[in-house]
Amino acid sequence: MSRPSSSTLARPLSMAKPMLRGRSLPLNAPRRPAVNKRVCILLYVAAILAASPFAQPAAARDSITTPEIVAASSNFGCMEWRISGACFWLDCGITACSVEVSIKVSHRSPSLVVSAYDTAGESPWVETRALYAAAQLTAHKTQYAAQGVNMNREMPGGKFVNNTNPNREDTHFKSADVIGGPGNIATIASGFGLPLFCPMTDIAPLAPYFLSGIDAIAWTTGTTELIYAASWVPGLREIGDRSLTNPLGNTWGPLFPRFGFLRNPDDVKSGAVIAQRAADIVYKSGQPHIYIRVGNLPGRPDGGMRVWEPGELRENDPDNSVWQMLVPLTEDECEAFGVDDRLKANAWSDGKFDKADYTFNLWRPYSCCEDEGIFITSIDF
User: Fold this and answer.
1) What value, to the nearest 5°, has the Cα angle with vertex 180 and ends 178 and 186?
2) The organism sits in which domain of life (predicted)?
3) How many helices (H) and strands (E) are present in the chain, helices listed first?
4) pLDDT per position as a tens digit, 251-265
């Protein structure tokens, strides 16, 4: 969360006489543009960008580049921008103080790019594959070598065939990466002189928040996850509506244990569940994994905004988070994983399988106000 700057806090309150009946500004102070005009311009730009080629789905692909992710992140269909409240500020000059009001806006932003893929070191995101693949493969082999395990053989990945137990043939293993998203709605908006978008102050672009190869033992064995009840109790944390009180409900798979193995005949849904597992880790503190918690690295500048950042990730809750597929299809819609498609003519996974590698944009909700002085409080509509 951004805080008022030190220069703001240093304003001479002791020399000021509060005048809270209305705005008190010097005669030569520049006038701010009318809020309603600013909002109209903003909505006009949003309509143009939403109809642009950036927002259109592409053909199936097995990889994606950073510019393509940035283009897909300019998707106002996933954003759901709205005026959500107001902020109140104390603005003091040499002789007087006044209470200022600024609009509070809320919208989703593409905070993280999460990939789940079969072959270790072969992320669909081209640039991060070049940056992090070698380090992941080396760390993976080193951790197992320290335990006396020979990892010269091929690392786990893909669908497993068990000749002695056919019931286990639906088991998949996928590596996973969680990387700071390169697309920033606030940066795009600033190019039009529009401040009413929230910067992702908790996200460092291209930062490796989680690389399963670095977390090799925990990700391949799941032993560190056994401390959680959800790893033992079916229905406790499912991607879908199955629960302890609804045992016959729909499920794509359990969130726990958060490791690379999952039993599900649907490879696309397996990739989605494993992506949710990896993202769940990085939004929490003190997890039994090797990772960087979101918010522990310097994020984007606040740009003169007070920002309310999203909290921990929750599954099955579109108000908390939604996903946009980038690979193998770049979609223009976002949704929470876990949709019940059992009675639908077309399954959720139809047309989305290419090479069993998947990349998603994770959109999280942010709220913000333009900084007008010393923060007093805010209200939500």
Assistant:
1) 145
2) Bacteria
3) 8, 14
4) 999 999 999 999 999
Task: Give whole-number Cα distances, 336 to 56, 273, 339, 361, in Å.
Answer: 20, 11, 7, 12
Cβ neighbors of 306 (< 8 A, separation 6 or more) are 1, 2, 3, 4, 87, 368, 369, 371, 375
Per DSSP, the three-state class of 9 is helix
Band (231; pLDDT cuts 50, 70, 90): very high
Instruction: Decide if 1 is inside a domain.
Output: no
Backbone angles phi, psi at 114, to 5 degrees: -120, 130
Distance between CA atoms of 62 and 84, rounded to whole angstroms? 39
Q: How many domains does the chain have?
A: 1
Phi, psi (deg, nearest 5) at residue 57: -70, 150
Q: What is the largest CA-CA distance in the chain?
A: 85
pLDDT at 83 over 90: yes
Separation of alpha carbons 256 and 287, rounded Å? 13
291 with 127: CB under 8 angstroms? no
pLDDT tens-digit readout, 166-202: 445 689 999 999 999 998 776 666 555 566 889 999 9
Q: Are 316 and 323 in contact (CB under 8 A)?
A: no
3-state secondary structure of 144: helix
CA distance 199 to 185: 7
Residue 33 CB contacts under 8 Å (≥ 6 apart), including other chains: none
Nearest Cα residue to 35 out of 115, 123, 124, 101: 101
Whether 342 is in a domain gets the answer: yes
Read off the DSSP letter of residue 156. Answer: P
List, for residues 278-315, the tens digit of each pLDDT value: 999 999 999 999 999 999 999 999 988 999 999 999 99
Query: Rounded distance, CA 100 to CA 81, Å?
Result: 23
Buried b (16+ CB within 10 A) or exposed e, 142-157: ebbeeeeeeeeeebbb
Of 85, 57, 365, 352, which is closest to residue 200 (Cα–Cα)?
365
Give the domain range for residue 260: 6-380
Question: Rounded to an integer, what distance in angstroms lies between the CA atom of residue 330 and that of residue 325?
Answer: 6
